[in-house]
């Protein structure tokens, strides 16, 4: 009924199907699951727990902090909504963007009691994702006097916390705020 060549071709095809089903349907998913367990902190979203053991956020996703006793994050074009992340796509000269930046600059200068020219760019502009968990060390240093006064800590103590929380070119705001709260509790 079937020629020898057809049966041989069918046998090779079935062997390949079975082999790749096992490799891609069993071994590869198992290997990825295993890697996820080896690097569980990263694979599970780098969740951060507070002093009470409750999850307070992710070290990888920014969130809004508007309490004057805490360090503030970068603005977010998405309102810190991870499901709606992204930039505004407004052009550099767009009137809405220019107005928003000017308003943020004036508000932050007043809040931090500094000249508007002292407000760093990351304090007034959203990151590309709108979910950046980091601020620049300059923006963190700008906020030290306000946070120190509100928490009843010395500026040197808070400056040390900023330095300890600096990771490369950025300061993780969630981790910094947790450190501030921990020191303020005594």
From TrEMBL:
UniProt entry keywords in alphabetical sequence: ATP-binding, Cell membrane, Ion transport, Membrane, Nucleotide-binding, Potassium, Potassium transport, Transmembrane, Transmembrane helix, Transport
InterPro entries named in the record: KdpC
The keyword Ion transport is assigned to this record: yes
GO cellular component terms, semicolon-separated: plasma membrane
Membrane topology reported for the UniProt record: Single-pass membrane protein
Domain of life assignment: Bacteria
Function: Part of the high-affinity ATP-driven potassium transport (or Kdp) system, which catalyzes the hydrolysis of ATP coupled with the electrogenic transport of potassium into the cytoplasm. This subunit acts as a catalytic chaperone that increases the ATP-binding affinity of the ATP-hydrolyzing subunit KdpB by the formation of a transient KdpB/KdpC/ATP ternary complex.
Record note on quaternary structure: The system is composed of three essential subunits: KdpA, KdpB and KdpC.
Family of the protein in this entry: Belongs to the KdpC family.
Name assigned to this protein: Potassium-transporting ATPase KdpC subunit
């Amino acid at each position: 009924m079937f020629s020898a060549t057809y049966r041989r071709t069918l046998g090779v095809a079935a062997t390949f199907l079975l082999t790749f089903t096992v490799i891609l349907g069993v071994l590869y998913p198992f290997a990825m699951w295993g890697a996820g367990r080896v690097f569980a902190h990263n694979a599970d979203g780098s969740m951060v727990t507070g002093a009470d053991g409750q999850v307070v956020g992710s070290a990888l996703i920014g969130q809004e902090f508007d309490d004057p006793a805490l360090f503030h994050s970068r603005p977010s074009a998405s309102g810190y909504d991870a499901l709606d992340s992204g930039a505004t796509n407004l052009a550099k000269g767009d009137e809405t963007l220019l107005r928003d930046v000017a308003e943020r600059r004036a508000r932050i200068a007043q809040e931090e009691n500094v000249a508007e020219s002292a407000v760093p760019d990351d304090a007034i502009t959203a990151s590309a994702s709108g979910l950046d968990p980091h601020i620049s060390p300059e923006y963190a240093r700008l906020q030290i006097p306000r946070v120190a006064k509100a928490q009843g800590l010395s500026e040197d103590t808070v400056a040390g916390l900023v330095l300890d929380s600096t990771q490369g070119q950025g300061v993780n705001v969630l981790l910094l705020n947790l450190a501030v709260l921990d020191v303020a509790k005594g």
